[in-house]
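Hi there,

I know you've been waiting on this one. I reran it after we fixed the sequence typo, so this is the corrected version. Both the input and the resulting structure follow.
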Amino acid sequence: MLTHPTLDLLTQLGLTGMAEAFKSLADNEEVHGLAHAEWLALLLDHEATWRNNRRLALRLRKAKLRHHAVPEDIDYRAPRGLDRRLFDMLLKGDWIKNHENCAIVGPTGVGKSWLGCALGHKACRDNHSVLYTRLPRLFEELDLARGDGRLTSRMRSIAAVELLILDDWGLQAIDANARHHLLEILEERYGRRSTLVTSQLPIAKWHELINDPTYADAILDRLLHNAHRLELNGESMRRPPVLPRP
């Protein structure tokens, strides 16, 4: 078999993974004794892996996750009240397939954003589209989009993503425009897509935060009706350890 013409043909056909595998396998004496079917199976396996990795990289780039958090790095021993049974269930991703929501609540520094990003990373692995944003920044972007005529397209793109992660819920007051935008987003997503929020505020204070009873009832109904609630506690994990005095 001519190496260069084969590599050229694989490249022309867009089979980059197979081309890379062909180059490495051609120099590997251990695989020379393989049958044609086994050789082809190895090439196809490399192509499938290459394509999956490329799709994952693209999904992660579009997700814009704040932290490079992966499920394998979760510290279940940290004293923050993390319900491992519930979180393992969330990592399986059925709640996203069922278009349910999730709320991660707790004090500053216990890892709410990090855990949210870990769930986002796992969703990307599971071939779901994901978008992370801080809620204050999202409101600013939507105000700008309304000013230059992009609001409709921006709202449409937010509605379409399979998992929307809204970080820092309740970090600042929600004004009339923000209330309207938030209700429109959640209305479009309710029962169709999943939304995850993180917040320092206890859920009991969210109604007061929205500062309009009618909007608050509508927003929280769409957000919390089918939401899995993960409530954390404990000291900030960002604080340096206290060293004993000499």
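Quick highlight: The mean pLDDT is 87.

Best,
R. S.
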